Amino acid sequence: MRWPQADVHEAVLSAPQANCVRVAMPEKFSRRDLPGLLAGAMEDVLLGDVAQCHLTPCSRQGGRMDVLVVDRRRIGNVVAQFEALGLPLAALYSELQSDLGAGRGWRLALSDGTALLHRPGQPRLALDAEGGGPPALLKAILATRGVTEAETPTLDVLRSSDAPANVADWQGTLEIPVAQVPMDYQWYRLGADKANLLHGGFAPARPTGLGWRPLRPALMLAVVVILAHWGVLAVQLGLQHHHLAQAEQSDVAQFQATFPGVPVMDPRAQARQQLDGLYGARGLLRSDDALALLAETSSLIGDAVGKGLKAVVYTDRRLSFRFAPLPPQGLDDLRSRLEAKGLRVMVAPAEAGDTLLTVLREVTP
User: Long-range contacts of range 352-358, CB-CB < 8 Å, 24 or more positions apart?
Assistant: First the structure.
């Protein structure tokens, strides 16, 4: 037999495998004192050894507490069987906690051979329901009701699909009003206040998914969003690499067309060197000549012009100085000094009567 895979595995013990016992408890106590208080209260109720019983509080009203009592060996066997199947249990419940619907009277849930009796304000009981008639213990309970219970109880009967009983004849036997509820009894449908039997030494040894299960849709959505974001980034990076490869191929093609016969190593750097050579052959500044030429000429121009210097301009690979008009003798002297350094000098009038002096390197034929 193969069990379907699930995130969380839960099991329900049939009603006869557990008892619900009501005991007196102090109004106030600490959580750590609860096991000792339960064991002491059970000493006066249980006939067997309390140490062999697994106790689970399921409800509390004032100084009274209802406790589910299950044999420890039985729980151990159930847990071990599920472990052997590779389906570790996250929770184990009792059929005594099943949902029997709402109603003011007594309720009896019938399944194959078993009946579960619910009386308002009393612990639930598991009864033997063989033969199709009303359970014998139910008759005894009705016969031994206290004399103070003047009100005759009503009995609503729920049936599972495999329950053979015909409750139409029960009213004459039990001598109380009996009605069959249209709601089907399902032993695995538990009440909202169900208590997990797996606690203490039977608590799951590892997380079983109960904590993060409500967050699973949000986590799945987050994973999808992250994967989609990574996919978009991968596409963008791929497009960038493609564009870069196309640009490099275009640079190589342009370099080969402009400078045929020159081996291609680094097209952009080689093109810059070739252009610098052409600029230098025409007296224009190379890529790295501007600062050197400025350092070479600034002292001469500064001495000649002084505070009359208004601007230093570098455009179209030409270095120009704009300053206030100098006497003809002073301008000729400055030109002679610059030409003595192997520079070519061009003088032109500028705005507001200023002088624009442009310096180029002398081209050696």
Answer: 353/325, 354/310, 354/322, 354/323, 354/324, 354/325, 355/322, 355/323, 355/324, 355/325, 355/326, 355/331, 356/320, 356/321, 356/322, 357/301, 357/320, 357/321, 357/322, 357/323, 358/318, 358/319, 358/320, 358/321
Is residue 256 exposed (0-12), middle (13-18) or buried (19+ Cβ within 10 Å)?
middle
d(CA 117, CA 144): 16
| Residue with tokens 């040894």, as numbered in its chain | 205
Our CA angle for 49, 51, 56, nearest 5°, is 110
Q: For the chain, report the end-to-end CA distance as a whole number of angstroms.
A: 101
Q: Give dist(CA 155, CA 142) in Å, integer.
A: 11
Q: Looking at the whole model, is its pTM more than 0.90?
A: no
Please name the residue that has the structure tokens 């190593």: 265
- pLDDT higher than threshold 90 for residue 56: no
Residues 6+ apart with CB under 8 A from 128: 113, 114, 115, 135, 136, 137
**Identity of the amino acid at 92:** L
328-340 and 290-305 helices, crossing angle to 10° = 150
Ordered structural domains, the chain, with CATH: 1-96+192-205 (3.30.420.380), 99-186 (3.30.420.370), 290-361 (3.30.1360.100)
In whole angstroms, how far apart are CA 24 and each of 38, 71, 340? 9, 21, 119
* pLDDT for residue 1: 47
Burial 320-354 (b: 16+ CB within 10 A, else e): bbbbeebeeeebeebbebbeeeebebeeeeeeeee
Residues 288-325 pLDDT 10s: 666 777 777 888 888 888 888 888 887 776 788 888 88
DSSP 158-193: EE-TT----GGGHHHHHTS-EEEEEEEP-TT-B-TT
Provide the total of helices (H) and of strands (E) in the chain, helices listed first: 8, 14
| Residue 55: exposure state from Cβ atoms within 10 A (0-12, 13-18, ≥19) | buried
